[in-house]
Amino acid sequence: MKTTIQTAFAAAVFMAALSVMPSQAAPLAQTQLVDTFDTPVYVTGAPGASSSTLLFVVEQQGTIQVLDNEVTESTPFLDMTSVVNFDGERGLLSIAFPPDYETSKLFYVCFTNDDGDVEVAEFTRTSAKVADANSLRTVLVVSHREASNHNGGQLQFGPDGFLYISIGDGGEVFPRGKYSRDLTSLLGKILRVDPKQQGMNAYSIPPDNPFAGTANRGEIFSYGLRNPWRFSFNGNNIAIGDVGQNKEEEINFLPVATAKGANFGWPEFEGKKKFDKKQPGPDKPLKPMYVYDHKKGACAVIGGYIVSDAALPALSSQYLLGDLCTGRITSFRPDPKGKKAMMVRDTGIVAGGLSSFGVGPGNKIYITQTGGELSRIEEAH
């Protein structure tokens, strides 16, 4: 068990969330506590037979813990606290395992370094439950020194096998969101790269990236995002949870092919509302599939996953999302035509300080909370 540093905060948020949660006769799901950690911000499984029972929990201060059959190992999978700048929204943000992880033994992490920049690094595991901390190889670094917030920081391997990286808009810069629409900046974007070393190059740019071959923008896959803290893939679809300014939170759920080169609207739009008409993007913005406002205490969307856990039939094929402040977890069925969210429902779960969703062994859905909790979502009893 780990001691937590934000238990009081989480308790306060939890009680506030209870006060705004609407009543629901029959909850769709509930949570089962697995263990507690120090500021967990992400959780995921890894591909391959040797990792089939393992779950990896990212702690913001710079460690990655590993669980076997939901039992926490005594030794961390990776300790990189010496190189992680942990302060506010900065820290170790996520981990991603490539499809060939079983044989390559390589994996990738995203963190803020001592300069405050967002860094993606490659590591090698020495065994299924231990990584080599000395194997760090920097893949890419995105300058992020003007403010400490809005780092993004999600890593995911897409259906094409390439690494997708979310980067926030640079935080408290003026005018707000100016880098998100700037196609010479990597801030406020989803990036896509092949992270493996290519000769003298630390990574390579897929030749079909929308701006490949153009200086300072080849890594860009899509733009016009404020703080895409969490995104995920489902088949050939991508779901992006983009944190709003002070009015609307949004989920963009669409085919990866449609997201390629797309403008998601910030800072001209916040959700579906106009924010700064003086800062339009170069391209017409796409509308989000789902938005919700801040009227009941919400503050920041936590994007999730499509449920494929056979033990959760009530949520089968539903997309899960939550909010940091209210802790409410909502589900919806994506419109096959990509236009709107269908069957929007309150799951009945309130998880104060919700920081992330993740998928583990058996397609089980897990959540992390800033108060320290790692929990599994299960059918309501």
Identify the notable features of this structure and list them briefly:
four-stranded antiparallel β-sheet, Neuraminidase, mainly beta, 27 strands, five-stranded antiparallel β-sheet, 3 helices, 381 residues, globular
Describe the model.
With 381 residues, this protein is mainly beta. It has a domain at 39-300: Neuraminidase, CATH 2.120.10. 6% of the residues lie in helices and 40% in strands. It is built from 3 helices and 27 strands. The strands form 7 sheets. Strands 2, 3, 4, 5 and 6 form a 5-stranded antiparallel sheet that branches. The chain has a 4-stranded antiparallel sheet with strand order 1-27-26-25, with no helix packed on it. A hairpin with a 4-residue loop joins strand 22 (319-323) and strand 23. It is globular and about 55 Å long. The model is unreliable at 1-23 (pLDDT under 50).
